[in-house]
Amino acid sequence: MRAIRRPSIPVGDAVADTIKIAIAGPKTGTETQYADMQFIGVKQAIKDINARGGVNGKMVESKEYDDGGDPKKAVAAANRIVNDGVKFVIGHMASVTTQPASDIYEDEGVIMITPGVTDPEITARGYQLIFRTVPVGSAQDPAAGNSFAKDPENKAIVDAIKADGKDPNGLYVFPAYSAVQLIAEGIKAAKSEDTDKVAKELHSGTFRTSIGTISFDEKGDLKD
Question: Which residue of 2, 8, 17, 210 pairs with 196 in a disulfide if CB–CB is 3.0 to 4.6 A?
Fold first, then answer.
């Protein structure tokens, strides 16, 4: 039987000068191309949010964690994230890494949004802090990333990514960008970094993002 999740502790509201978001993905191993897309999206979103003044008066910063595409390394990365006091995670990028890591996040009061995993089992366990910005059970169409990049509303994002020498057309770039937008908007709506409060706002709200207007069901999956 699983342990009851600890209550969320809003330590960030009390002492942190910045809002920290972990980027957890396979920076090493055989799936580094997925992490490259993920990191491009997250970092550009943080740049754009900070350029507009941050979130609730705080700047946002990222911390990078490599899961190597391996379940054991993902558990180690998740534990480091918890020990570092980071309360928000964009990741992971594979079912085999996301499932064990998300167990830790749910227990420890950390919100996780995966921009790449479609496996229905990830959100079928009654968790409240686990979300995704890709449709559940969907086949990943490589053309989707290009369609987001061609959206006129995303032109400024695309131009900024290109100016940084990166490719905005990757499949996971904009789902990762949108995941950061969701965390920022959830914190704004909650007027707090308490992850229980932020998760409640994410479950109940509707948010405009770079991949469209998003709302979540009770499991943390995208509503149709």
Answer: 8
